[in-house]
Design brief:
Elements (H helix, E strand, L loop, with lengths): L1 H12 L9 E3 L2 H13 L7 E3 L15 E4 L11 H8 L17 H9 L8 E7 L1 H4 L6 H11 L3 E6 L12 E7 L9 E6 L5 E7 L2 E4 L2 H13 L6 E5 L4 E8 L3 E2 L2 E2 L15 E6 L4 H8 L8 E11 L3 H4 L9 H25 L1
Parallel strand pairs: 1-2, 3-4, 5-7
Antiparallel strand pairs: 4-6, 5-6, 7-10, 8-9, 11-14, 11-15, 12-13
Length: 353
Protein backbone atom coordinates (compact mmCIF):
# COMPACT_ATOMS: atom_id res chain seq x y z
CA UNK A 1 0.00 0.00 0.00
CA UNK A 2 2.80 2.41 0.88
CA UNK A 3 4.99 1.85 -2.16
CA UNK A 4 2.10 1.85 -4.65
CA UNK A 5 0.74 5.05 -3.09
CA UNK A 6 4.14 6.70 -3.46
CA UNK A 7 4.44 5.59 -7.09
CA UNK A 8 0.94 6.90 -7.83
CA UNK A 9 1.69 10.33 -6.34
CA UNK A 10 4.98 10.71 -8.20
CA UNK A 11 3.71 9.40 -11.55
CA UNK A 12 0.30 11.06 -11.70
CA UNK A 13 0.37 14.04 -9.36
CA UNK A 14 3.83 15.49 -8.71
CA UNK A 15 7.10 13.77 -9.73
CA UNK A 16 9.18 16.23 -7.68
CA UNK A 17 7.44 15.93 -4.33
CA UNK A 18 9.44 14.38 -1.48
CA UNK A 19 7.66 11.42 0.10
CA UNK A 20 8.83 9.69 3.27
CA UNK A 21 7.05 6.43 4.12
CA UNK A 22 6.38 4.98 7.57
CA UNK A 23 4.53 1.81 8.48
CA UNK A 24 3.81 -0.62 11.30
CA UNK A 25 2.72 -4.25 10.88
CA UNK A 26 1.88 -6.97 13.42
CA UNK A 27 2.04 -10.00 11.14
CA UNK A 28 5.69 -11.10 10.95
CA UNK A 29 5.53 -12.35 7.36
CA UNK A 30 3.77 -9.23 6.08
CA UNK A 31 6.23 -7.07 8.01
CA UNK A 32 9.19 -8.87 6.39
CA UNK A 33 7.71 -8.45 2.90
CA UNK A 34 7.02 -4.75 3.50
CA UNK A 35 10.53 -4.13 4.82
CA UNK A 36 12.08 -5.97 1.86
CA UNK A 37 9.97 -3.95 -0.56
CA UNK A 38 11.16 -0.70 0.98
CA UNK A 39 14.80 -1.86 0.95
CA UNK A 40 14.60 -2.73 -2.75
CA UNK A 41 13.29 0.76 -3.46
CA UNK A 42 16.24 2.27 -1.61
CA UNK A 43 14.02 3.79 1.08
CA UNK A 44 14.65 4.04 4.84
CA UNK A 45 13.91 0.49 6.01
CA UNK A 46 13.95 1.49 9.70
CA UNK A 47 10.71 3.37 9.06
CA UNK A 48 8.93 0.02 8.72
CA UNK A 49 8.50 -1.36 12.23
CA UNK A 50 6.99 -4.51 13.77
CA UNK A 51 4.40 -4.86 16.50
CA UNK A 52 0.82 -4.05 17.40
CA UNK A 53 -0.24 -0.43 16.91
CA UNK A 54 -2.45 -0.47 20.02
CA UNK A 55 -0.07 -1.30 22.88
CA UNK A 56 3.25 -0.96 21.00
CA UNK A 57 2.88 2.27 19.05
CA UNK A 58 6.25 2.56 17.31
CA UNK A 59 5.50 6.09 16.11
CA UNK A 60 4.27 7.65 19.32
CA UNK A 61 4.18 11.42 19.00
CA UNK A 62 4.60 11.35 15.21
CA UNK A 63 2.12 13.09 12.92
CA UNK A 64 1.49 12.26 9.26
CA UNK A 65 -0.05 14.01 6.25
CA UNK A 66 -1.55 10.91 4.63
CA UNK A 67 -2.45 7.57 6.19
CA UNK A 68 -3.64 4.28 4.67
CA UNK A 69 -4.82 1.14 6.44
CA UNK A 70 -6.53 -2.15 5.66
CA UNK A 71 -6.91 -3.60 9.18
CA UNK A 72 -8.14 -7.16 9.75
CA UNK A 73 -11.91 -7.48 10.01
CA UNK A 74 -13.37 -8.53 13.34
CA UNK A 75 -10.01 -8.67 15.15
CA UNK A 76 -10.18 -9.18 18.92
CA UNK A 77 -8.27 -6.86 21.27
CA UNK A 78 -8.74 -9.05 24.35
CA UNK A 79 -4.99 -9.64 24.81
CA UNK A 80 -4.39 -5.88 24.99
CA UNK A 81 -7.52 -5.09 26.97
CA UNK A 82 -5.83 -3.83 30.14
CA UNK A 83 -3.48 -1.44 28.29
CA UNK A 84 -6.24 -0.10 26.04
CA UNK A 85 -8.73 0.46 28.87
CA UNK A 86 -6.07 2.37 30.82
CA UNK A 87 -5.42 4.64 27.83
CA UNK A 88 -9.16 5.09 27.25
CA UNK A 89 -9.39 6.66 30.72
CA UNK A 90 -6.87 9.31 29.68
CA UNK A 91 -8.74 12.31 28.16
CA UNK A 92 -5.70 12.87 25.92
CA UNK A 93 -5.37 9.19 24.97
CA UNK A 94 -6.16 7.70 21.59
CA UNK A 95 -9.22 5.77 22.71
CA UNK A 96 -10.98 8.27 24.96
CA UNK A 97 -13.97 8.66 22.59
CA UNK A 98 -15.13 5.11 23.24
CA UNK A 99 -14.21 1.43 23.07
CA UNK A 100 -15.90 -1.02 20.70
CA UNK A 101 -16.75 -4.55 21.77
CA UNK A 102 -13.71 -6.69 22.53
CA UNK A 103 -14.40 -9.00 19.58
CA UNK A 104 -13.98 -6.24 16.97
CA UNK A 105 -11.31 -3.55 17.24
CA UNK A 106 -11.83 -2.04 13.77
CA UNK A 107 -12.79 1.44 14.97
CA UNK A 108 -9.77 1.52 17.28
CA UNK A 109 -7.48 1.46 14.24
CA UNK A 110 -9.23 4.60 13.03
CA UNK A 111 -8.94 6.27 16.44
CA UNK A 112 -5.23 5.44 16.41
CA UNK A 113 -4.83 7.08 12.98
CA UNK A 114 -6.88 10.15 13.93
CA UNK A 115 -4.49 10.70 16.85
CA UNK A 116 -1.68 11.05 14.29
CA UNK A 117 -3.31 13.71 12.10
CA UNK A 118 -1.26 16.85 11.49
CA UNK A 119 -2.91 19.96 12.96
CA UNK A 120 -2.28 21.69 9.62
CA UNK A 121 -4.19 18.98 7.80
CA UNK A 122 -4.19 15.23 7.23
CA UNK A 123 -6.19 12.72 5.24
CA UNK A 124 -6.94 9.09 6.10
CA UNK A 125 -8.23 6.21 3.99
CA UNK A 126 -9.18 2.99 5.79
CA UNK A 127 -11.00 -0.13 4.61
CA UNK A 128 -13.71 -1.57 6.87
CA UNK A 129 -16.41 -4.19 6.65
CA UNK A 130 -19.99 -3.10 7.37
CA UNK A 131 -19.78 -3.40 11.16
CA UNK A 132 -18.32 0.08 11.96
CA UNK A 133 -21.21 1.71 10.08
CA UNK A 134 -24.01 0.65 12.40
CA UNK A 135 -22.95 -1.84 15.09
CA UNK A 136 -23.75 -0.66 18.62
CA UNK A 137 -26.77 1.13 20.06
CA UNK A 138 -26.83 4.73 21.31
CA UNK A 139 -24.37 5.06 24.19
CA UNK A 140 -22.25 2.11 23.06
CA UNK A 141 -18.55 2.43 22.30
CA UNK A 142 -19.06 2.11 18.55
CA UNK A 143 -21.83 4.72 18.48
CA UNK A 144 -19.81 7.11 20.63
CA UNK A 145 -16.83 6.81 18.28
CA UNK A 146 -19.03 7.59 15.27
CA UNK A 147 -20.52 10.52 17.24
CA UNK A 148 -17.02 11.84 18.01
CA UNK A 149 -15.91 11.61 14.38
CA UNK A 150 -19.05 13.18 12.92
CA UNK A 151 -19.40 15.95 15.50
CA UNK A 152 -15.78 16.91 14.85
CA UNK A 153 -16.61 17.00 11.12
CA UNK A 154 -13.83 14.57 10.18
CA UNK A 155 -15.82 12.09 8.07
CA UNK A 156 -15.53 13.20 4.46
CA UNK A 157 -16.80 10.23 2.45
CA UNK A 158 -17.63 6.52 2.53
CA UNK A 159 -17.45 4.38 -0.61
CA UNK A 160 -19.29 1.03 -0.71
CA UNK A 161 -17.12 -1.38 -2.69
CA UNK A 162 -18.15 -4.45 -4.71
CA UNK A 163 -18.04 -7.83 -2.96
CA UNK A 164 -15.42 -10.51 -3.67
CA UNK A 165 -12.55 -8.06 -4.08
CA UNK A 166 -10.24 -9.65 -1.49
CA UNK A 167 -8.40 -12.96 -1.45
CA UNK A 168 -9.57 -14.08 2.00
CA UNK A 169 -13.18 -12.83 2.15
CA UNK A 170 -16.08 -12.12 -0.15
CA UNK A 171 -18.01 -9.80 2.19
CA UNK A 172 -19.06 -6.20 1.55
CA UNK A 173 -16.36 -3.63 2.31
CA UNK A 174 -16.19 0.14 2.56
CA UNK A 175 -13.53 2.84 2.24
CA UNK A 176 -13.81 5.59 4.87
CA UNK A 177 -12.10 8.88 3.98
CA UNK A 178 -11.40 10.95 7.10
CA UNK A 179 -9.90 14.43 7.06
CA UNK A 180 -9.30 17.42 9.33
CA UNK A 181 -8.82 19.73 6.33
CA UNK A 182 -12.10 19.55 4.43
CA UNK A 183 -12.53 22.07 1.60
CA UNK A 184 -15.23 24.64 2.26
CA UNK A 185 -17.95 22.94 0.19
CA UNK A 186 -17.53 19.72 2.20
CA UNK A 187 -17.69 21.31 5.66
CA UNK A 188 -20.52 19.80 7.69
CA UNK A 189 -21.24 17.24 4.97
CA UNK A 190 -20.68 13.51 4.36
CA UNK A 191 -20.57 12.04 0.86
CA UNK A 192 -21.74 8.46 0.33
CA UNK A 193 -20.80 6.71 -2.91
CA UNK A 194 -22.41 3.44 -3.98
CA UNK A 195 -19.74 1.62 -6.01
CA UNK A 196 -21.06 -1.93 -5.53
CA UNK A 197 -21.76 -2.26 -9.25
CA UNK A 198 -18.36 -0.98 -10.37
CA UNK A 199 -16.46 -4.20 -11.00
CA UNK A 200 -15.41 -6.67 -13.65
CA UNK A 201 -15.15 -10.43 -13.39
CA UNK A 202 -11.72 -12.02 -13.18
CA UNK A 203 -10.92 -14.74 -15.70
CA UNK A 204 -9.81 -16.98 -12.87
CA UNK A 205 -10.68 -16.68 -9.18
CA UNK A 206 -7.92 -16.24 -6.60
CA UNK A 207 -9.37 -17.56 -3.35
CA UNK A 208 -12.39 -15.40 -2.59
CA UNK A 209 -11.27 -12.77 -5.08
CA UNK A 210 -13.51 -13.05 -8.15
CA UNK A 211 -13.92 -9.37 -9.00
CA UNK A 212 -11.69 -6.36 -9.65
CA UNK A 213 -12.25 -2.66 -10.29
CA UNK A 214 -10.90 -1.61 -13.70
CA UNK A 215 -8.80 1.49 -14.28
CA UNK A 216 -11.71 3.09 -16.17
CA UNK A 217 -14.08 2.40 -13.28
CA UNK A 218 -11.56 3.82 -10.81
CA UNK A 219 -11.45 7.02 -12.86
CA UNK A 220 -15.25 7.16 -12.99
CA UNK A 221 -15.54 6.73 -9.22
CA UNK A 222 -12.83 9.33 -8.65
CA UNK A 223 -14.85 11.71 -10.80
CA UNK A 224 -17.98 11.09 -8.72
CA UNK A 225 -15.99 11.80 -5.57
CA UNK A 226 -14.31 14.98 -6.82
CA UNK A 227 -17.43 16.46 -8.43
CA UNK A 228 -19.24 16.21 -5.10
CA UNK A 229 -22.68 16.28 -6.72
CA UNK A 230 -25.69 14.13 -5.88
CA UNK A 231 -26.63 11.49 -8.45
CA UNK A 232 -27.71 7.90 -8.83
CA UNK A 233 -24.66 6.58 -6.98
CA UNK A 234 -23.84 9.60 -4.83
CA UNK A 235 -25.70 11.02 -1.84
CA UNK A 236 -24.64 13.99 0.30
CA UNK A 237 -25.95 14.51 3.84
CA UNK A 238 -25.42 16.92 6.71
CA UNK A 239 -23.42 15.37 9.57
CA UNK A 240 -26.37 15.38 11.98
CA UNK A 241 -28.49 13.41 9.50
CA UNK A 242 -26.89 10.23 10.88
CA UNK A 243 -27.62 11.13 14.50
CA UNK A 244 -30.63 10.35 16.63
CA UNK A 245 -31.88 10.68 20.17
CA UNK A 246 -32.91 7.37 21.68
CA UNK A 247 -35.86 8.09 23.98
CA UNK A 248 -37.45 5.78 26.55
CA UNK A 249 -41.23 5.41 26.29
CA UNK A 250 -43.00 4.30 29.46
CA UNK A 251 -46.49 2.87 30.01
CA UNK A 252 -48.38 2.78 33.34
CA UNK A 253 -48.44 -0.26 35.62
CA UNK A 254 -51.99 -1.63 36.14
CA UNK A 255 -53.36 -3.77 38.93
CA UNK A 256 -57.13 -4.69 38.85
CA UNK A 257 -57.69 -2.23 36.00
CA UNK A 258 -56.38 0.80 37.93
CA UNK A 259 -53.17 2.74 37.35
CA UNK A 260 -50.66 2.10 40.16
CA UNK A 261 -49.22 5.34 41.50
CA UNK A 262 -46.29 6.25 43.73
CA UNK A 263 -46.54 8.27 46.96
CA UNK A 264 -46.50 11.51 44.92
CA UNK A 265 -49.43 10.38 42.82
CA UNK A 266 -47.38 9.81 39.66
CA UNK A 267 -48.08 6.63 37.67
CA UNK A 268 -45.56 3.83 38.09
CA UNK A 269 -44.09 2.44 34.88
CA UNK A 270 -44.55 -1.15 33.74
CA UNK A 271 -41.08 -2.34 32.69
CA UNK A 272 -42.61 -5.09 30.53
CA UNK A 273 -44.30 -2.41 28.38
CA UNK A 274 -41.22 -0.16 28.14
CA UNK A 275 -40.27 0.76 24.58
CA UNK A 276 -37.75 2.93 22.76
CA UNK A 277 -37.86 5.33 19.82
CA UNK A 278 -35.06 6.75 17.68
CA UNK A 279 -35.79 10.40 16.99
CA UNK A 280 -33.68 12.04 14.23
CA UNK A 281 -31.52 14.87 15.58
CA UNK A 282 -33.11 17.27 13.12
CA UNK A 283 -36.57 16.48 14.53
CA UNK A 284 -38.05 17.97 17.73
CA UNK A 285 -38.39 15.17 20.31
CA UNK A 286 -41.69 16.38 21.80
CA UNK A 287 -43.25 16.95 18.38
CA UNK A 288 -42.09 13.52 17.25
CA UNK A 289 -43.55 11.89 20.37
CA UNK A 290 -46.91 13.64 19.93
CA UNK A 291 -46.99 12.76 16.24
CA UNK A 292 -45.63 9.20 16.17
CA UNK A 293 -46.34 7.71 19.62
CA UNK A 294 -49.29 9.35 21.38
CA UNK A 295 -51.87 8.53 18.68
CA UNK A 296 -51.14 4.82 19.19
CA UNK A 297 -50.59 4.69 22.99
CA UNK A 298 -52.40 7.60 24.63
CA UNK A 299 -51.25 6.73 28.17
CA UNK A 300 -47.53 6.72 27.30
CA UNK A 301 -44.95 9.23 28.47
CA UNK A 302 -41.22 9.85 27.97
CA UNK A 303 -38.51 9.46 30.59
CA UNK A 304 -36.14 12.12 29.22
CA UNK A 305 -33.55 11.42 31.93
CA UNK A 306 -32.60 8.31 29.94
CA UNK A 307 -32.08 10.09 26.60
CA UNK A 308 -29.00 8.97 24.66
CA UNK A 309 -27.60 10.38 21.43
CA UNK A 310 -26.39 7.84 18.89
CA UNK A 311 -25.05 7.80 15.35
CA UNK A 312 -25.35 5.11 12.68
CA UNK A 313 -24.96 4.96 8.91
CA UNK A 314 -27.41 2.65 7.12
CA UNK A 315 -25.86 2.56 3.67
CA UNK A 316 -28.42 0.17 2.18
CA UNK A 317 -31.34 2.39 3.20
CA UNK A 318 -29.93 5.45 1.42
CA UNK A 319 -29.46 3.62 -1.88
CA UNK A 320 -32.47 1.32 -1.66
CA UNK A 321 -34.21 0.68 -4.96
CA UNK A 322 -37.74 -0.69 -4.89
CA UNK A 323 -38.20 -3.79 -7.02
CA UNK A 324 -41.84 -4.66 -7.76
CA UNK A 325 -43.01 -8.13 -6.80
CA UNK A 326 -43.29 -10.66 -9.59
CA UNK A 327 -46.72 -11.33 -11.07
CA UNK A 328 -48.64 -14.23 -9.55
CA UNK A 329 -48.86 -15.93 -12.96
CA UNK A 330 -45.04 -15.98 -13.26
CA UNK A 331 -44.61 -17.46 -9.79
CA UNK A 332 -47.29 -20.10 -10.48
CA UNK A 333 -45.63 -21.06 -13.77
CA UNK A 334 -42.26 -21.49 -12.02
CA UNK A 335 -43.82 -23.67 -9.32
CA UNK A 336 -45.52 -25.89 -11.89
CA UNK A 337 -42.27 -26.20 -13.83
CA UNK A 338 -40.38 -27.20 -10.67
CA UNK A 339 -43.09 -29.73 -9.81
CA UNK A 340 -42.70 -31.23 -13.28
CA UNK A 341 -38.91 -31.49 -12.88
CA UNK A 342 -39.26 -32.99 -9.40
CA UNK A 343 -41.76 -35.59 -10.60
CA UNK A 344 -39.41 -36.62 -13.37
CA UNK A 345 -36.49 -36.94 -10.92
CA UNK A 346 -38.65 -39.00 -8.58
CA UNK A 347 -39.55 -41.40 -11.35
CA UNK A 348 -35.89 -41.82 -12.28
CA UNK A 349 -34.96 -42.53 -8.65
CA UNK A 350 -37.77 -45.04 -8.20
CA UNK A 351 -36.88 -46.68 -11.51
CA UNK A 352 -33.23 -47.12 -10.38
CA UNK A 353 -34.42 -48.62 -7.09
Amino acid sequence: MLTIAKEHIQQKINPDVEIVMYGQELNEQTYAIAKSDVLIMGEEADNIRPGTSFSEDKFKGNKFNYMLSNPPFGVSWKKEQEFIKDEANDPYGRFHAGLPRVSDGALMFLQHMISKMEPRGSRIAIIFNGSPLFTGDAGSGESNIRKWILENDWLEAIIALPTELFYNTGIATYIWIVSNCKPERRIGKVQLINAVGYYKKMRKSLGNKRNYVSEEQIQELTGIYTRFEEGENCKIFDNDYFGYTKITVERPLMEHGEIVRDKNGKPKSDSSLRDYEKVPLNDDVVEYFDREVKPHVADAWMDRSKDKVGYEISFTKYFYEYKPLRALKEIKADILALEGETEGLLKDIMGDA
